[in-house]
Amino acid sequence: MSRGSFVFVLHSHLPYCRKAGVWPFGEEWVFEAMAETYIPLLDVISDLVAGGVPVKLTVGLTPVLLDQLQDPYMLFRFEEYLETKIAAAEADIARFEAESEGRLRDLARFYRDRYESVRRSFHERYGGDIVGAFRSLQEGGHIELVAGAATHAYLPLLARESSVYAQVRIGVDTYERCFGRRPQGIWLPECGYRPRDSVAGPPGSAFAAAGIDGVLATMGIRHFFVDSHAIQGGTPAGMYGARFAERQPVPRYIPSRPGFTTYLPYSVEGSGLLVLGRNERTALQVWSSEWGYPGDGNYREFHKRDSVSGFRYWKVTSRLVDLASKEIYQPEAALAKAKEHADHFVCLVERLLGEFHADTGKHGVIVAPFDVELFGHWWMEGVDWLRWVLEGLARSDSVELATAAGYLENHPPAGQIDLVESSWGMGGGHYIWDNEATSWMWDEIHSVEREMERTAASLAFLTTAGGHDPGGPDTIEKRLLRQAAREALLLQSSDWPFLVTTEQAADYASRRFLEHKNRFERLLYALERADAMAEIERYLGEIEAIDAVFPDINPAAFAWKQGSASRR
User: Lower CB count within 10 Å: N or C terminus of the chain?
Assistant: First the structure.
């Protein structure tokens, strides 16, 4: 007898990297994720489905990522990337053979075989269409795909409601184009939530009337996800504290909210939207720097690379030893540990849901959201761990695997909740995106928001209320407006302040941010000066070829006001 449900939510996002650098920052971020995470994940789900395992997963792919996964240029470059990796592995095999390094030679063969398998799956199993493969799994009832904000903007810190609407509207439109249906759920970037009528927004905000709730309801979204403290209060665990503990701010303390629990869904007061909260215990079992699974000494070490090929030939060994002391990786031992950890996780889920049922008599739910790039990329064995967890829970007599939409359909919420402002970032608030190192970015973002809203409203004659071309030639004015809208969206990406704060790629992020800002300003200047059209046309063509995201972009979305547009 089922005592509760388990909802895996795998969220995937990468910034727009097309023609914006290769290594160490840029396009290879996307190619690594395709080869190490997305295709292996598709293989796991497809294998389980073929074997009769009743898979149920909730998967989020952000619109800006979907665009890159379908871009002919990026797909061609991915082919080149795979060929380069296979050739590098072949060279390492010969090098280690000559040096009588048998264990390293075998690992080089392991990598060669791995990349060749990815190439076969990409071509033979999925026909070079990763997005189409996810669509087929949704149409088969095995996964639920949720929508996302266009460029993964951190919505609580945007100053204009029109910007939030544009992010969500273009995200929903992209979803419908890719998957042939309207989404039921959405992944709010970084689980960032801000209630309507919030007084904690940015200075000069025009965001208070409907907030995120109103925009989601307008677009017909039914459910979304938040971190645990947004529902039950307490000190936030945060998502990134384990990875960037040295930069951890003082967490926000939210008073405990007796009677509210992440084991149940809720209806959000005033909107009718449904919300599911992240289960903290299962999240920490994976993410904790102290006892999370990926830190086990048997797993592959992510941070040490071979100086010639760049392959990772070492294991974690111990998080207390430096990189120079890491031991050689042993795939068989690592997979055995992944199976052990998967079995442990299945038992943990069964126990937690059993305890909740025993205490309350209710059918509870555990919602376990993770960045999907954790599995395969950061934690190479994580995809195998995921396979065994899904198999184990599918066999469980006490746990029901479910998608978010499927769970809510069968177990609608019985209570309402007034959510608090929150995120799953460090400290549970906005610090990782807004701090002393990034505040200048928000000044620029808010300025561009105001200018884009003003321009879209003043040039509304170029598009219909629904954002469609009203007919006539595709004038340079229309092209300029569309490209300005693209640059505004790309500027708003949460990746730029995140990378500055975490010091992962601060210079790259700052440069990309300023590029989008400068392009926006130059395009707007041309729109406002009729005599500049001829001289700007060549520049416009160059930028359209680089920032080619969202070909059907709707600039009129930036002129939206509450009550001014329906979901269509």
Answer: N
